[in-house]
C-alpha cells in the first residue's frame, strides 16, 4: 500500500504555505534576518509542537511566520514545499497563503506574492509541478481588513485563483465575511472556506449558503447533521480533509476514529491533504499512509481519494483529463 500510495500522482488542495515552514529553514531565515526565535535547537522547536486545539497551534504558526521578511524568504519557503511535492509525487497543488499574517507586520503584499510566484515558475520548470494560489483571509481579523487585502491583491489578480478563510474558527462564523466574499467573487476569485474543523455544522451551512463556496476545507463536522450531508452531496461539493492535522489538533482522538471513510460512504467527495505539514508530522504520502492504515482503506478507496482531488481541483478540464490518465496508467501498471 505504501508503495502504491507513493507511486500515484496526487493533487493537494489544502495546504498553508506558512504551515510548510520546517524548523531547519526557520532557523536559517531567522539567522540571516537577525531575528530572535524562542528556541535554541530543532529539538526544542519540535517539543513545542504539541497542541491541544487549533488556537494553540495558530499562536506558534504565526510566531514562526514572523521571521519571513524578504521576497527570497517567501521564495525559499515555497521552493522547500515544492521539493516535498516532487518527493511525494504531488503534480498539482493549490497553495493557500495568508497575506495578513505578513502585511500586519509591515511586509508588503507584493513581497509575499512575488516570492511565491517566482517559486511557482521555478517549480514548474524544475519538476513540472502545476500550482494555483488561494489567498486566505484571516477570520480573527475584521471584514474591513479582509477588504483591504482584497484591494491589495487586485494588481496581482491574474496570479490568484481563489479566496479562502482560515485561522480561529470558533466565534468567527462565515457570515462575518459575507460582503468581502461577494466582492471577491465579483473580482473572479473562486470562494472556499475552512468550516466545521472546530466549528459547528452551522458554520458549514453558512459557508455554503452565504459565502457560496465551491469547496469546503475540513468540513468533518458535517456528519453531525444529516441534512447537511445531503446538501453537500446534492451540491457536489468536495471536502479537503486533513487527517494528521485532525489528529494533532485533537479534532480526532485516534486515527482509527477518523471520519474519512464515513464521509466517503455517505457519497461525499473527500480528498486527503496535509494542511500544515511542518507542524503536523507529515506531507501527502504520510497523510495517506496514516489514514489508510488506521481505517484499512482499500486500493479502490485510495484511487477514489486521489481521483477526487484531481476532479475537484481548479485545474482546467484538459489538465484534469491528463492527470486522470496518469493515475489510470499507474493503477494499471501496478
Ligand atoms: N485551520 C485554520 N486556520 C489555519 C489552519 C487550520 O488548520 N492552518 C493554518 N491556518
Ligand atoms: Zn487549513
Automatic annotation (TrEMBL):
One matching Pfam family:
A_deaminase
Which Enzyme Commission numbers does its entry carry? 3.5.4.2
Give a yes or no for keyword Metal-binding in this entry: yes
Q: What is this protein called?
A: Adenine deaminase
What's this protein's function? Catalyzes the hydrolytic deamination of adenine to hypoxanthine. Plays an important role in the purine salvage pathway and in nitrogen catabolism.
The UniProt record lists the keyword Metal-binding: yes
| Entries under CDD domains matching the protein | ADA
Q: Which residues bind Zn(2+)?
A: 14, 16, 194, 275
* Reactions it catalyzes: adenine + H2O + H(+) = hypoxanthine + NH4(+)
Which key words tag this protein in UniProt?
Hydrolase, Metal-binding, Nucleotide metabolism, Zinc
Q: Return the cofactor note field.
A: Binds 1 zinc ion per subunit.
Q: Active site at which residues?
A: 197 (proton donor)
Q: What is the lineage of its organism?
A: Bacteria, Pseudomonadati, Bacteroidota, Flavobacteriia, Flavobacteriales
Q: Which organism is it from?
A: Epilithonimonas hispanica
What sequence ranges are listed for the domain Adenosine deaminase?
A: 9-329
| Family of this protein | Belongs to the metallo-dependent hydrolases superfamily. Adenosine and AMP deaminases family. Adenine deaminase type 2 subfamily.
> Residue numbers for the site described as Important for catalytic activity?
218
Amino acid at each position: 500500500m505504501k508503495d502504491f500510495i507513493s507511486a500515484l500522482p496526487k493533487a493537494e488542495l489544502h495546504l498553508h504555505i506558512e504551515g510548510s515552514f520546517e524548523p531547519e529553514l526557520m532557523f536559517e531565515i531567522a539567522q540571516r534576518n537577525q531575528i530572535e526565535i524562542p528556541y535554541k535547537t530543532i529539538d526544542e522547536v519540535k517539543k513545542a509542537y504539541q497542541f491541544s486545539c487549533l488556537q494553540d497551534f495558530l499562536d506558534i504558526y504565526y510566531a514562526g511566520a514572523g521571521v519571513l521578511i524578504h521576497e527570497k524568504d517567501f521564495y525559499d519557503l515555497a521552493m522547500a514545499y515544492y521539493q516535498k511535492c516532487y518527493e511525494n509525487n504531488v503534480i498539482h497543488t493549490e497553495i493557500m497563503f495568508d497575506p495578513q499574517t505578513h502585511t500586519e507586520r509591515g511586509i508588503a503584499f507584493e513581497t509575499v506574492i512575488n516570492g511565491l510566484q517566482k517559486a511557482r515558475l521555478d517549480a514548474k520548470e524544475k519538476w513540472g509541478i502545476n500550482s494555483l494560489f488561494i489567498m486566505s483571509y484571516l477570520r480573527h481579523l475584521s471584514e474591513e481588513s479582509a477588504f483591504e487585502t482584497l484591494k491589495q491583491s487586485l494588481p496581482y489578480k491574474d496570479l490568484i485563483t481563489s479566496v479562502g478563510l482560515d485561522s480561529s474558527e470558533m466565534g468567527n462564523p462565515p457570515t462575518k465575511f459575507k460582503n468581502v466574499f461577494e466582492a471577491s467573487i465579483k473580482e473572479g476569485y473562486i470562494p472556499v472556506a475552512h468550516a466545521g474543523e472546530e466549528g459547528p455544522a452551522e458554520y458549514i451551512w453558512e459557508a455554503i449558503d452565504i459565502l457560496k463556496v465551491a469547496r469546503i476545507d475540513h468540513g468533518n463536522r458535517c456528519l453531525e447533521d444529516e441534512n447537511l450531508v445531503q446538501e453537500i452531496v446534492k451540491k457536489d461539493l468536495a471536502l479537503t480533509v486533513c487527517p494528521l492535522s485532525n489528529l494533532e489538533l485533537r479534532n480526532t482522538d485516534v486515527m482509527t476514529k477518523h471520519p474519512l471513510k464515513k464521509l466517503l460512504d455517505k457519497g461525499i467527495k473527500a480528498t486527503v491533504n496535509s494542511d500544515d505539514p511542518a507542524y503536523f508530522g507529515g506531507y501527502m504520502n504520510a497523510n495517506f499512509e496514516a489514514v489508510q492504515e488506521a481505517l484499512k482503506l482499500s486500493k479502490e478507496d485510495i484511487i477514489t481519494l486521489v481521483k477526487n482531488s484531481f476532479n475537484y481541483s481548479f485545474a482546467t478540464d484538459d489538465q484534469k483529463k491528463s492527470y486522470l490518465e496518469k493515475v489510470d496508467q499507474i493503477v494499471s501498471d501496478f
